[in-house]
Amino acid sequence: MVVSGRNGAAPVLVRAARGEKTPHTPVWFMRQAGRYLPEYRAIRETHSLLEICARPELAAEVTLQPLRRFAADAAIIFADILLPVIPMGLSLRFAAGEGPVIDPPVRDAAGARALSAVDVDDALASTLDAIRLVRGELDAETAVVGFAGAPFTIASYMIEGGASRSFVETKRMMYSDPEAWDTLMRRITSTVAGFLAAQVRAGADVVQVFDSWVGALSPDDYRRYVLPYSSEVLRAAEATGAPVIHFGAGTATLLELMTEAGGDVIGLDWRVPLNEGWARIGGCAVQGNLDPIALFAPRDELARRVDDILARAGNRPGHLFNVGHGLVPNTDPAAVRFVVDRVHERSARQ
Amino acid sequence: MVVSGRNGAAPVLVRAARGEKTPHTPVWFMRQAGRYLPEYRAIRETHSLLEICARPELAAEVTLQPLRRFAADAAIIFADILLPVIPMGLSLRFAAGEGPVIDPPVRDAAGARALSAVDVDDALASTLDAIRLVRGELDAETAVVGFAGAPFTIASYMIEGGASRSFVETKRMMYSDPEAWDTLMRRITSTVAGFLAAQVRAGADVVQVFDSWVGALSPDDYRRYVLPYSSEVLRAAEATGAPVIHFGAGTATLLELMTEAGGDVIGLDWRVPLNEGWARIGGCAVQGNLDPIALFAPRDELARRVDDILARAGNRPGHLFNVGHGLVPNTDPAAVRFVVDRVHERSARQ
Question: Is the ipTM of this complex over 0.90?
Answer without folding.
Answer: yes
